[in-house]
């Protein structure tokens, strides 16, 4: 059973990360990365998932999505994508056991500048890993799709992305997106930053304040961390080995709900 870690607050942009079980390289074959993307496309058709960016690596995925009208769209989509990808791999390899870590992590991201930074961070994942020198060389991320929108098998909601980034025309978004990536590549800022993968939320001071208000009593013990021009809402420090373990906590149901997924596909 894969579950979100740890909260769901309606109406947000979410950067989701999900790792293979024990960080194994279970997505090392291109056919499995392609299947993950094909199931992402299916989730978009079935549940109306609004995708802003994505990247599939050899042992984890990044998925940037925004809440639509149906709050079940995101958990149902992760259930479908993760479950079917794991099931197909296990059947093909004659493998048994978990394919994914128990919990996926979701970080709320403010729109505008923070969203653009998160998009670039996702784009440059395999550059940081030393696999490619430019994101255009990695076919399993959203960089090329943002730069050259598709007519078939479209994954990214281009119009929604344009709106959230504050552009009147998509050509302006494309040019800026390319410039953001080149800037990070040229100035040496392309380093791993766990604010995108460990925080509850990333954004301005007011954004973090609003997230804490929405969390209600669950905000107790969480701390604000200032990092350059952004703020993070972080969990209390815990051992890394416990990061994906189950946590049972009550959340104010007026503001939040659990992302609880029930499936057995990836554990066959």
Q: How are the elements arranged and paired?
A:
Elements: E1 3-5, E2 13-19, H1 30-47, E3 50-56, E4 60-66, H2 73-93, E5 103-109, H3 113-123, H4 125-128, H5 143-147, H6 158-165, H7 170-187, H8 195-198, E6 201-203, H9 205-215, E7 223-227, E8 230-234
Parallel strand pairs: 1-5, 5-6
Antiparallel strand pairs: 2-4, 2-5, 3-4, 6-8, 7-8
Helix pairs in contact: 1-2, 3-7
In short:
With 268 residues, the protein is α+β, with helices and mostly antiparallel strands. The chain has helices at 30-47, 73-93, 113-123, 125-128, 143-147, 158-165, 170-187, 195-198, 205-215; strands spanning 3-5, 13-19, 50-56, 60-66, 103-109, 201-203, 223-227, 230-234. Helix 1 (30-47) packs antiparallel against helix 2 (73-93) and helix 3 (113-123) crosses helix 7.
Poorly predicted runs of 5 or more residues = 238-268
Number of strands: 8
Portion of residues in beta strands equals 15-25%
Highest-level CATH class: Alpha Beta
Measured as a percent range, the helix fraction is 25-40%
| Helix/sheet category | alpha+beta
CATH fold annotation: Alpha-Beta Plaits
Distance N to C terminus: 12 Å
* CATH architecture label name: 2-Layer Sandwich
Helical region count? Answer: 9
Backbone shape: globular
Number of domains: 1
**Strand-and-helix sequence, N→C?**
EEHEEHEHHHHHHEHEE
Mean pLDDT: 86
């Amino acid at each position: 059973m894969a579950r979100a870690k740890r909260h769901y607050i309606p109406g947000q942009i979410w950067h989701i990360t999900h790792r293979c079980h024990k960080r194994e390289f279970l997505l090392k074959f291109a056919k499995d990365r392609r299947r993950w993307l094909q199931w992402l496309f299916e989730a978009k058709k079935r549940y109306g998932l609004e995708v802003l960016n994505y990247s599939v690596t050899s042992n984890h995925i990044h998925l940037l999505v925004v809440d639509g009208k149906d709050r079940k769209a995101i958990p149902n989509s992760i259930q479908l994508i993760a479950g079917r990808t794991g099931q197909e791999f296990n059947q093909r390899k004659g493998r048994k056991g978990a394919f994914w870590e128990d919990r996926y992590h979701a970080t709320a991201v403010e729109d505008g500048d923070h969203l653009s930074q998160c998009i670039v961070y996702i784009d440059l994942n395999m550059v940081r890993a030393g696999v490619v020198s430019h994101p255009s060389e990695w076919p399993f991320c959203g960089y090329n799709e943002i730069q050259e929108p598709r007519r078939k098998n479209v994954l990214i909601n281009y119009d929604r992305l344009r709106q959230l980034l504050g552009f009147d025309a998509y050509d302006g978004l494309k040019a800026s997106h390319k410039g953001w990536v080149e800037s990070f590549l040229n100035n040496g800022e392309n380093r791993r930053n766990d604010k995108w993968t460990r925080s509850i939320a990333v954004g301005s001071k007011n954004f973090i304040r609003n997230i804490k208000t929405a969390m209600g009593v669950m905000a107790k013990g969480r701390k604000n961390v200032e990092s350059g021009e952004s703020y993070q809402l972080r969990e209390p420090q815990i051992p890394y080995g416990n990061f994906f373990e189950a946590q049972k906590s009550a959340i104010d149901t007026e503001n939040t709900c659990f992302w609880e997924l029930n499936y057995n596909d990836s554990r066959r």
